[in-house]
Write a structure and sequence with these properties.
Number of domains: 2
Number of strands: 11
Shape: globular
CATH topology of the largest domain: Aminoglycoside 3'-phosphotransferase, Chain: A, domain 2
Strand content: 5-15%
CATH superfamily of the largest domain: Aminoglycoside phosphotransferase (APH), C-terminal lobe
Largest sheet: 5 strands, antiparallel
Structural class: alpha+beta
Strand order of the largest sheet: 1-2-3-5-4
Helix content: 40-55%
Distance between the termini: 56 Å
Order of helices and strands: HEEEHEEHHEEHHHHEEEEHHH
CATH architecture of the largest domain: Alpha-Beta Complex
Length: 335
């Protein structure tokens, strides 16, 4: 392994590949895929032309600064804690499989460290592009996938629990910290605001106004007693498209029971004009207004925090922070 930044080699993953697919498949090559910030994602190529994907949860593969890498196993009670780990992945995968929502099939999940010195999973490789690429290339052709994604979101929304929190936590009978989703979101929004204000004078100048707005918007939201299943970061880059045009959800570790409006403000931001395919009826407009401001602040503070480390795609991440900073500042000028 390249110890400078945890790049696994073919030799490192030969035992993993053999355990996942058997001795009849000889590993011919390994390539690290771009985009992951919390885990390593590798394509395994075999001598018979088949492929698979390996996920590696290892600090050497995690680009977030040390302060963000809390002990995830001990902090699942925080709905917004660093969503990374094999236990979160397996719990979300099992839940989606039971609901009939497509996600890559697990071929191996191993935490024994006997094949590799970190928790690792091998899943099917879904050939083709992701939904983000398809929307750029052929938006008309993506309509079938968008319609099927809307159906999957509806299935997830109707699958409710009486408590909110990460799927792994709820499955084990645990309880999240916080009185309600809106209180958890407000606490996070104020922390994100403080962090953004400390980094950017434009935010610092209007911090008090944004805090007042966040508190006021939160005060209009009434508590709930049931919560739907959400992905949490469901952008078109987290949706693969299989050969039949079906959506396949990836990066699922953050799956949790929560207010579905939190999902929908992210969908609105990431899907833009294509959100019209995904918007559901019966969403709480007051929650949407509050959560949109909170999401903007999160999408400023989070990328800036990631840039404290050595994340490679720095220009794109800085662009996300700047765009959402401008959108957050726009709240100050709304009536």
């Amino acid at each position: 392994m390249d110890t400078a930044r945890g790049v696994a080699t073919r030799e490192d993953l030969e035992g993993v590949a053999r355990a996942a697919l058997g001795a009849g498949h000889r590993l011919a090559g390994v390539s690290r895929l771009r985009g992951g910030s919390k885990k390593g994602v590798y394509r395994l190529a075999f001598d018979d032309g088949s492929t698979a994907i390996a996920y590696i949860w290892d600090d050497a593969e995690n680009y977030w600064p040390a302060a963000a890498k809390v002990d995830d196993a001990a902090d699942h009670a925080d709905p917004f804690s660093h969503a990374s780990g094999l236990d979160l992945f397996q719990a979300a995968n099992a839940r989606l499989d039971a609901l009939g929502v497509r996600t890559p099939r697990i071929l191996l999940a191993d935490r024994s460290r006997s094949h590799y010195p970190a928790d690792i999973a091998v899943v099917e490789d879904v050939p083709g592009e992701n939904l983000e690429a398809l929307l750029r290339r052929d938006p008309k052709g993506a309509e079938t996938t968008l319609a099927l994604l809307a159906e999957a979101l509806d299935v997830m929304r109707r699958h409710t629990a009486p408590g909110f929190g990460k799927v792994a936590l709820i499955d084990s009978g645990g309880t999240s910290r916080g009185r309600s989703c809106e209180q958890v979101v407000l606490d996070r929004a104020l922390a994100d605001l403080a962090e953004a204000a400390a980094r950017d004078t434009r935010v610092a100048r209007v911090r008090d106004h944004l805090e007042q707005m966040a508190r006021e918007l939160a005060s209009f939201v009434r508590p709930r007693s049931e919560f739907g299943l959400i992905h949490g970061e469901l952008g078109p880059d987290h949706v693969l498209v299989d050969r039949l045009g079906r959506p396949v959800l990836i990066d699922i570790e953050g799956f949790m029971f929560f207010d579905v409006e939190w999902e929908h403000v992210f969908l609105r931001i990431r899907f833009g004009e294509h959100y019209r395919w995904l918007g559901g009826s019966g969403l709480d407009e007051r929650r949407l207004a509050f959560y949109m401001l909170a999401m903007r602040l999160s999408l400023v503070a989070g990328p800036l925090r990631l840039l404290d480390g050595d994340f490679p795609d720095r220009e794109a991440m800085a662009g996300i922070a700047e765009y959402n900073l401008q959108q957050a500042l726009a709240f100050c000028f709304e009536e």
